[in-house]
Amino acid sequence: MGLVPTTRICPDYYTISAGVKAEATDSAINEILWMLKDFKENGLTDEEFDFTKKALLASEALDYESLMQKAGYISNILNRELPKDYAQQQSQILKNITKEELNALAKKNIDLSKMVVVVSGDMLLLKDRLSELGLGKIQILEKDGSGKFKYLKSGKTKHIKNWK
Predict the structure, then answer these.
(1) Chunked in runs of 10, what are the mean pLDDT values of the chain (164 residues)?
(2) Helix, strand, coil proportions of the chain in percent (round to 5)?
(3) Does residue 77 fall inside a structural domain?
(4) Is the distance from CB of 128 to CB of 153 less than 8 angstroms?
């Protein structure tokens, strides 16, 4: 599971992703929601803060390892008109930020009522389980993200079986 600030798209927008088995999708979403709620209400523990800060600082060099990562970094700086020393400024912020500052930001900015949950998978299996989470109406879209997708229940497909 990962949390990625997608500031290239727009500020205050984050993506949380997880690769889980279909049967665990609903419980994974439930766990993520619980973690966000707990983070907002109770903040990070000292242990969580120290571990996360050390891991982020240690992984910084890997952020620009491949040509694609370097190109993305340069594109981000150009598109957002950031200063040339943007990476150094971000590193300095990370080194100096306190647990109290992060906890205050979480209280102020995490708003579960504005969250959008996107699930890719077998909706025949997942739809009822996801409905039980109480996150609102489930919208099933086409592969390109348009319209509403009509799915066929088992036995109603015109697919020709190519196995015996």
Answers:
(1) 49 79 91 94 95 87 79 82 86 93 93 85 85 84 70 48 44
(2) 55, 5, 40
(3) yes
(4) no
Residues 6+ apart with CB under 8 A from 122: 22
Residue 68 within any structural domain of the chain? yes
Distance CA 88, CA 94 (A): 10
Taking the model in full, what pTM does it have? 0.69
Q: What is the pLDDT of residues 115-135, one digit of tens each?
A: 888 888 888 888 888 888 888
How far apart CA 59 and CA 73 sit, in angstroms, is: 15
Task: Establish if 12 belongs to a structural domain.
Answer: yes
Q: How far is Cα 77 from Cα 89, in angstroms, rounded to an integer?
A: 13
Quote the tokens at residue 112. Answer: 């579960």
DSSP code of residue 133: T
Q: Phi and psi dihedrals of 94, rounded to 5?
A: -60, -40
3-state secondary structure of 2: strand
Domain that holds residue 76: 2-131
Q: Virtual CA dihedral for 75, 81, 83, 88, nearest 10 degrees?
A: -50
The token pair at 70 is 């370097």
Q: What is the DSSP letter of 121?
A: S
